[in-house]
Write a structure and sequence with these properties.
It is found in: Plastid, Chloroplast. By secondary structure, the protein is an alpha+beta fold. The protein is built from twelve helices and 18 strands. It has three domains: 70 residues, no CATH class; 86 residues, Glutamine synthetase, N-terminal domain (Ubiquitin-like (UB roll)); 251 residues, Creatine Kinase, Chain A, domain 2.
């Protein structure tokens, strides 16, 4: 029996005392039903009451749910566009709705809009208007029909990107002809942890305690190992409906922790798809990773393994720049333990998940493929990470002296993992 509870028990509907279920009120009698006030009640507080929504003969009386599920398509050409943008913290999402006269197929058909940036930490109160530029469209799995989700970035009224607009800089990098020619592909592994909201403790963990050690939870099945699968599955379907390029999902090594993968995506669309997927599964991303798989056209062609090695060399020389841009709280994750590299030391290896950069066995064997950057935190900005990878490996050229020194260091570096020592595969 669904309930809507108001502050007091001043008013109530009587049910049979000894009945296991309340007496039902049919839709025919609902409108004529008189709610009687208790004799001891205070007649001055008529606004305080309790309402029970009981089952009718056919279905639950729930007008709100019926309206939420109402398909307006047969009655109007108008649609609802949910404008979504990134707030002042750089990881919080904001949104508001707008009626559009008819369905659209491209963001250029949508009007620009504005919002109060002083309320999102993105503008001063005396000059608070921020302009939203529609950039990507997805189908809305919540409202259905022709309604859409609109990923936007943010500008001043003069047309300048505001400081928290990382998409604009990424778009510049991805519009460079050298980058376009390399057709950069990304596959992003977004990890997240489900929390029990009432106690702020991970789902599946005993409150205030710890579960058994890791081992049975990764890709685990069963009620004692797979906690929150219904949420993961619901999100999976919502992403597919929206048109997000989600490619899979799995339970992670910690109880209550999940991962989904988005890609392969080309260029700027990788960031658009990740941000929209986060909107569908809004939460706090700290404490897990967001491994980013990356390749260029040259890496995917014959002789690509040598191109990958050159890219890794460049990445080693800009390790600090990447770490500083790869998300908050990474120092608590990149400890050198639990299949992570140390945050202070760059490393790479084949099939080694304890490195900064991992190369797969298949890539080594075939002599072409992709690399995996295991450094980004789960709260990273995908616009920043994807564009920085392209910039460092395609556009940035180190000095010959720095390149030679880095090559020497990497070729001599010993990688130690799980008690086994082997040379870096340079």
């Amino acid at each position: 029996m669904a309930q809507i509870l108001a502050p007091t028990t001043q008013w109530q509907m009587r049910i049979t005392k000894n009945s296991m279920t309340p007496s039902l009120v049919t839709t025919k009698t609902w409108s004529s039903l008189l709610l009687k006030q208790k004799k001891s009640g205070n007649t001055k507080s008529l606004s305080k009451f309790r309402v029970y929504a009981l089952k009718s003969e056919n279905n639950t009386i729930n007008r709100l749910e019926n309206l939420l599920n109402l398909d307006i398509t047969p009655y109007t050409d108008k649609i609802i566009a949910e404008y979504i943008w990134i707030g002042g913290s750089g990881i919080d999402l904001r949104s508001k709705s707008r009626t559009i006269p008819r369905p659209v197929e491209h963001p250029s058909e949508l009007p620009k809009w504005n919002y109060d940036g002083s309320s999102t930490g993105q503008a001063p109160g005396e000059d608070s208007e921020v302009i939203l530029y529609p950039q990507a469209i997805f189908k809305d799995p919540f409202r259905g029909g022709n309604n859409i989700l609109v990923i936007c970035d943010t500008y001043t009224p003069a047309g300048e990107p505001i400081p928290t607009n990382k998409r604009a800089r990424a778009a510049e990098i991805f519009s460079n002809q050298k980058v376009i020619n390399e057709v950069p592909w990304y596959g992003i592994e977004q990890e997240y942890t489900l929390m029990q909201t009432n106690v702020q403790w991970p789902l599946g963990w005993p409150v205030g305690g710890y579960p058994g050690p890791q081992g049975p939870y990764y890709c685990g099945v069963g009620a004692d190992k797979s906690f929150g699968r219904d949420i993961s599955d619901a999100h999976y379907k919502a992403c597919l409906y929206a048109g997000i390029n989600i490619s899979g999902t799995n339970g992670e090594v910690m109880p209550g922790q999940w991962e989904y993968q988005v890609g392969p995506s080309v260029g700027i669309e990788a960031g658009d798809h990740i941000w929209c997927s986060r909107y569908l599964l809004e939460g706090d991303w700290n404490g897990a990773g967001c491994h980013t798989n990356y390749s260029t056209k040259s890496m995917r062609e014959e002789g690509g393994f040598e191109v990958i090695k050159k890219a890794i060399l460049n990445l080693s020389l800009r390790h600090k720049e990447h770490i500083s841009a790869y998300g908050e709280g990474n120092e608590r994750r990149l400890t050198g333990k639990h299949e992570t590299a140390s945050i202070t030391t760059f490393s790479w290896g084949v099939a080694n998940r304890g490195c900064s950069i991992r190369v797969g066995r298949a890539t080594e064997k075939q002599g072409k493929g992709y690399l995996e950057d295991r450094r980004p935190a789960s709260n990273m900005d995908p616009y920043v990470v994807t564009s920085l990878l392209a910039e460092t490996t395609i556009l940035w050229e180190p000095t010959l002296e720095a390149e030679a020194l880095a090559a020497q260091k990497l070729s001599l570096k010993l990688l130690v993992k799980k008690g086994q020592m082997h040379l870096s595969n340079w």
